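One such shown below:

_____
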Amino acid sequence: MTDLRREFEQAAGNIQRLSKRPDNDTLLKLYALYKQGSEGDLKRAAQPGFFDFIGTAKHEAWVQLCGVPEEEAMRRYIALVDQLLA
């Protein structure tokens, strides 16, 4: 396991220590960066249903990161978690 991957997984665990829930935009960024860093580009998954507002927001947030290398997404995720914990 690479150092970056280890830091990424540690950041994912550290997010649970937040004393205050982040706003929805930040939660979407965290979700999308985590998914991009752990799985890469969104595969041709069916888009969530029209009335699945949360699923649609998550889907759109992840799609916006299409093309971002996994390593870059991991670095951004780690930085965002560090910023939230500071």
Notes: The chain has a mean pLDDT of 91. The chain is about 65% helix and 0% strand. The radius of gyration is 13 Å.
